[in-house]
Amino acid sequence: MENLEIARMLAETGDLMEIGGEDGFRIRSYRNAASVIEGYPERIADILNDPARKVTDIQGIGKGIAEALKEIVTRGSFARRDEMLEKYPPTALEMLRIQGLGPKTVRTLWEHFRVSTLEDLERLCREHKLQDLPRMGAKLEDKILKGISQYRQSAGRFLLNYASAAAEELGEYLGATPAGSFRRGRETVGDLDLLVTGENAEAALAKFVQHPRVHDVLGQGTTKASALFGLEGLQVDVRAVPAESYGAALQYFTGNKEHNVALRQRAQKMGLTLNEYGLFKVSDETRVAGATEEEIYEALGLAWIPPEMRENQGEIEAAEKRQLPELIELEDLRGDLHMHTRESDGRATMEEMAEAAKAMGYEYIAITDHSKALAMANGLDEARAVQFAAQVREFNKEDRGIRIFSGLECDILRDGRMDLSEDALAELDWVVASVHGYMNIETPEMTDRLLRCMESPSVKVLGHPTGRVLLHREAYTYDFDRVAGEAAKRGVWMEVNASPERLDLSANLLRRAKALGVKFTISTDAHHPKHLANMKYGVKMARRGWLTKDDVMNTRGVAKFAAAVRK
DNA sequence: GCCGTTTTCGGCCCGACTGTTTTCAGTCG
User: Residue A261: which pLDDT band, with cuts at 50, 70 and 90?
Assistant: First the structure.
């Protein structure tokens, strides 16, 4: 049992308890424990198995949850969870994920109509049955219908961090390499494709279906096995391919479809045929290439194309002219410019974040806690912001092997003004401007709002510029080209938010912004030292947006970066 | 349910919006 799954069970139990109308503080304890465990560096199961260790030493885990953890690890559930699942169906949890539907409404619907599936709920809304209940009306019915449709679009897809954990675990276990949309760095994946090759390839398929976290084997033959993995049921396809076809298979299963079609057409014109086994001459079926991707692309007269670019969006033409951009690499990053501490809603102190960043080899970070508009996150007001800036100046007086920039993730108010006064903002080194509220305003108003926020001389970068939350919330709408154009003109940068829930901007918008002359930062929005490792997802996204090292400002060394910020 | 304690009980982030009301419950962040 992995931490992520344990955390999910605790959080879900908290959700069910909320539907049950139980004490809010008790629910918070479950959620808090879930969040601590999710971010915990060691496996909870290992700690439980070590007689010398106590899980209650972990902050947020007391006697009660320690008992639950023991149960979860030994039998896959715990009493409280079972009890709640007796009362409410697991489908109730699905309903909670609909935007606009909360625990109280779910409970009312269950008690009145025994609504247990989204289909039931949808029908009731269409028949306007919700209006029979107190405080429910037509608007709510509409909202729920919209929420269901949005939810359906995202169901069955997985965030990159989840897929990534599975890919790493199985990759190591099987000696397998990921292909598919995961390899291309898509922000969400529907399934995970893995390739194994060599003498033990067929044996690996058998080994795969015996993995303790594999269940529901969908099929198993000599070249392919397919099964559901982990609690969430991520579908994993493992393919065994001979060494001489490995490159061809990797290419074929990485896709995407359009890219592959274009390559096969190209091969055809050259008197060749391309499939997952190799590149062959049509005339006498002799093998031209297949063992590596590089030799296939080369035989087609192309430079090897990074997987993140394989969408048939002009990359083949660029590869032909040998004009592919040199994409940014994870190792190019010298700092992380968006993270939170306990001052607002983060889990660690400034010093702990700095220490973790230093261990990753960074030269600098910016601490960017929330501003006061985010009251629930205990955002900073003017006085605290100014005090924080002084604290950072003090920190930097000594050489600590890492430089901190005093930053703030400052809310952009509805009218486009900044949440804190210019005087206070001027004390800080680095202001990230972000939208956290009023996301459903009309497109022109949102455009004006973002244009106006850049009039503040303190604003250096637009944080998570479209506000999307993957599988959960659509981006808010505005005239992107106008805003990006203005950002380029004013020297305001745009963020690639590396949090796997966001990955904002998207690849398409990155390319558009880049074309308009925008510069970027890639930052994790970490709320825990562990989240600093999410940088790799941001880099993937940047690569999908064709960004180079030069496009991304936090690839600069500390002196150059500081100079660029001051300008 | 956790934490901290002047150690077994009291405190634990809450403000703003929406849609429903006619004073507020529910949701979101």
Answer: confident
Single-letter amino acid code for the residue at A301: G
- Provide, in whole angstroms, the distance separating residue A61's CA from nucleotide B13's C1': 20
User: Under CATH, domain A330-566 is a member of which superfamily?
Assistant: Metal-dependent hydrolases (3.20.20.140)
A133 touches strand B (CB under 7 A): no
Q: CATH topology for A159-320?
A: Beta Polymerase; domain 2 (3.30.460)
CB-based burial label for A216 (10 Å; 0-12, 13-18, 19+): exposed
A139 touches strand B (CB under 7 A): yes
Q: Which class does domain A3-154 fall in?
A: mainly alpha
CATH 3.30.460.10 intervals, chain A: 159-320
Within 13 Å of residue A409, how many CA atoms lie on the same side as its CB? 31
Tokens 């960043």 belong to residue? A357
Whether any strand B atom is under 7 angstroms from the Cβ of A129: the reply reads no
List bases, strand B, within 7 Å of protein CB.
1-4, 11-15, 17-21, 25-29
pLDDT classification of A440: cutoffs 50, 70, 90: confident
Mean per-residue pLDDT, A57-86: 93
Q: Which residue has the tokens 């709510």?
A: A140
Domain with CATH 1.10.150.110 in chain A: 3-154
A302-359: pLDDT as tens digits: 999 999 999 999 999 999 999 999 999 999 999 999 999 988 888 889 999 999 999 9
